[in-house]
Amino acid sequence: MLCEGVPVSDLLSWLGENGKSLNEEEIAAILKLCMMAIHHLHQNDIIHRDIRASNFIISPEGEMKMIDFGSCALVKDSDGKTHSSIGSPYWMAPEVIACEQLRPYTKSCDVWSLGITAIELAETLPPLFDIHPVRAMFQIARNPPPTLKTRTEWSETFRDFISECLERNAEHRPNILELLLHPFITAIDDTGNATLTLEEHLQQEFVPTSGARVKQSIILIAPLSQADIDESIFHSLLQNTEKRPLNFIETDSNFSRNTSSIQNEELRHPS
Fold first, then answer.
1. Looking at residue 104, what is its pLDDT?
2. Active site residue 50
3. Cα distances (Å, whole numbers) of residue 224 to 55, 59, 62, 67, 211
4. Domains in the chain, ordered, with CATH?
5. What distance in Å separates the CA atoms of residue 213 and residue 187, rounded to the nearest whole number?
6. How confident is the model at residue 224 (pLDDT cuts 50, 70, 90)?
7. pLDDT tens across 37-46, in order?
8. Rg of the chain over CA atoms, in angstroms?
9. Distance between CA atoms of 21 and 13, rounded to whole angstroms?
10. Is 66:34 a contact under the CB 8 Å cutoff?
11. At CB < 8 A and 24+ separation, what contacts does 193-198 make?
12. C-alpha pair distances (Å), 28 with each of 50, 132, 195, 203
């Protein structure tokens, strides 16, 4: 199946090259749609394990879709846990990196990756992107969670959203449904009952939906993929592989590297 559109990561690259960036409302709109897709997977006992901007595409009509399910894990019959160290290093949760030494991990690893993606949307690149991916993994496993480089340029609610996602203790990390009710997200598109508490929302089996403001924000972003970027550039982005994250595969402890790119590497261990 062919999904026409531009990866959000390519849109971020184009914005950066032209001295532009997403504002918080646009970031919140993208994150809400990302979380709705992740929530659908989690409801069906699936962990994506590769949440990042390049795995969400935005169409010229302003629609967003999740792609690349090759790293997914079905955890229905394993008590919601898995133990394979797989994903894209810069976005990997600490417990995924250390899973073979410690214990299996759960769906909350996608929440960590979402927090890194939030920073990526704000700064166009994830933290530690300037160092080798294996070294980055060591730092992720050992160091405190990353934060926005220029904290004062962003609102307290956005910083808090990222902080909630990047809780090192996976057991204390909120789930996707709780994050959908975070003020940073509801501020742009509160389609629920604002008088209900978080607990009441969850008791009523809150079903996330996207309202008019989210749709309007995405539609406003979409022309950047086709109108502001002229047609030839738009189609070249669809074919562009130079700036795509590199797949980095570990098999029997021997690394195989595609030297055409040095930006991102995906570490996989056979289950």
1. 86
2. yes
3. 18, 10, 10, 20, 21
4. 21-55+68-76+84-194 (1.10.510.10)
5. 10
6. low
7. 999 999 999 9
8. 18
9. 9
10. yes
11. none
12. 20, 30, 21, 24
